[in-house]
Specification:
binds zinc ion; about 20% helix; seven-stranded mixed sheet; alpha/beta; about 25% strand; Metallo-beta-lactamase, Chain A; about 300 residues
Length: about 300
């Protein structure tokens, strides 16, 4: 049987914490996180709804056959959800929007989504929802299929509440997106229930198990998108983010071929982001790994690299 063309990884928002716009960050872009996996089919797959989702909304006009959207939500911090109330497709009849998200703190994503529209948060009336909405609960480590073709697995990373990284496979196109993530060493336990689990196994044993499982989750995944919000000089581990060094350490152990650095800090200008890549690439070359800065509206075919 003829193989499908590789899926395309599209970066629509690569900034972390909040959108930013200054004359000094136009090269990499200032929209907050939104990534698309384009399989070329009549549906589209999105990871997170930061302000970069506006690009997806704009581009959908070029694909009138696309009437279904699958949105994988990593977590509900503002930078990852702030565009949802402005998603024009909510008002489109004959349009399906599937949200795939974990519950966090005992609250379902459906409830959090509903609250985005309430209590005077919008200057306009809440959208008149005409689209069919589906809310699918994602359980970490349990694989599921999108449209019967795209395999997705979630992994709880070390970030506040429940935050999931996703590994997505479509035929030979495989990518993992590891959003906001902090190193878990030295008792820096941020994920929901991590402290309780560490209490029963011992912190050192829990941390080793978590780190081994993270590497296993990414093992031989050719393309990985990883949080590099901080650098070694300004790292605040308990804020829940990584550095290029942390990303490279995990990815080299997992034999990743292409590391895309993203969730660039809003304070980083284009020169800072470019320097980050240059320094990282020097180190990564020893591991036969390519390091690439995610840049808004860049597209990468998901070949095996
Ligand atoms: Zn974030
Ligand atoms: Zn976050």
């Amino acid at each position: 049987m003829k193989k499908a063309a590789p899926a395309i990884l599209k970066f629509h928002g690569v900034r972390g914490s909040r959108p930013v716009h200054t004359p000094f960050n136009t090269n990499y872009g200032g929209n907050s996180t939104c990534i698309e996996i384009d399989t070329g089919m009549d549906y589209t797959i999105i990871i997170d709804g930061g302000s970069g989702l506006q690009h997806v909304i704009n581009n959908l006009g070029e694909h009138p056959q696309r009437r279904r959207m699958h949105i994988l939500v990593t977590h509900t911090h503002w930078d990852h959800v702030l565009m949802f109330p402005f998603l024009q497709q909510l008002e489109c009849k004959n349009f399906e929007i599937h949200f795939h998200a974990p519950d966090a703190g005992g609250v379902s994503f459906k409830d959090i989504f509903a609250k985005l529209f309430k209590h005077g948060r919008l200057p306009i009336p809440a959208p008149n929802v005409q689209a069919k909405l589906f809310f699918h609960k994602v359980t970490p480590d349990a694989a599921f299929l999108i449209e019967g073709k795209v395999k997705v697995v979630g992994f709880q990373v070390n970030h506040q509440h429940i935050t999931l990284g996703y590994r997505i496979s479509y035929e030979d196109s495989i990518v993992a997106v590891i959003p906001d993530i902090a190193s878990i060493s030295n008792g820096n336990l941020l994920g929901e229930s991590f402290a309780e689990q560490a209490k029963s196994t011992g912190t050192e044993a829990f941390e080793k198990q978590y780190n081994d499982n993270l590497v296993k989750f990414l093992k031989d995944v050719p393309n990985v998108v990883f949080d590099t919000h901080f650098n070694a000089q300004n790292l605040k581990a308990d804020w829940g983010h990584a550095t290029p060094e942390i990303a490279m350490d995990v990815c080299s152990r997992a034999r990743v071929k292409r590391l895309f650095m993203f969730h660039h800090a809003p304070e980083e200008n284009d020169q800072d982001v470019a320097t980050k890549q240059m320094l990282a690439q020097r180190v990564a070359i020893a591991n036969d790994m390519q390091v690439i800065n995610a840049r808004e509206e860049d597209e990468w075919p998901l070949t095996a690299a």
